[in-house]
Design brief:
CATH architecture: 3-Layer(aba) Sandwich
Distance between the termini: 26 Å
Strand content: 15-25%
Protein name: AB hydrolase-1 domain-containing protein
Number of helices: 8
CATH superfamily: Alpha/Beta hydrolase fold, catalytic domain
Organism: Rhizocola hellebori
Helix content: 40-55%
Domain AB hydrolase-1: 51-145
Strand order of the largest sheet: 1-2-4-3-5-6
InterPro entries: AB_hydrolase, AB_hydrolase_1, AB_hydrolase_fold
Order of helices and strands: EEEHEHEHEHHHHH
GO molecular function: catalytic activity
Shape: globular
Length: 194
Amino acid sequence: MTPGVITLADGRLLSWHEFGDPDGSPVLYTAGTPVSGLGGACYDQTARAAGLRWISPDKPGYGASGHQRRRSLASWSDDLLALASHLGLGRFALAGESGGAPFTLAAAHRLGDRVSVVALIAAGGPMGPAERVGMTSSARVMNWFARNAPALNTFRVAAMRRALVSPKNLQRAIHDVGVDRSAEVMSVLASYVK
């Protein structure tokens, strides 16, 4: 599928991909880190079955979306509002996965009157020592960097992104994640947006 692209008020490009049912109830999905809007493809079949139009934008600096120097949680809601307006969406659901969850919550807060429901998928919160028990060493290192030296995480995220370019590595990562719960997520979303 060819992504759609619009020019935002500040001159940046915002691209997006659509999956699921083209005539279904709209859901603006924010993928986690380091995933582009193409990550929405993993929900294509279940969104279609649930009657959801799964709209998956590329975050700033991902895919064909332009880099945003001073990106913030709040600025993402402006991008989503521009996309929703461009697509002629009145009300819509929001879904955010993993690192996309905080941006989704901020957008829900700022766009409250336009949002019908919010779904968070594999969202995390503050982590203390008890929450870190059982984490892989790689996840512990990223968690430490996030708390103590966030700028250093950019190197780890870039390495993850390069690794996932390989289809073999991507399949292994998907397999390692475990159980696919997308049908449950779609069922819950569909019950609220219709």
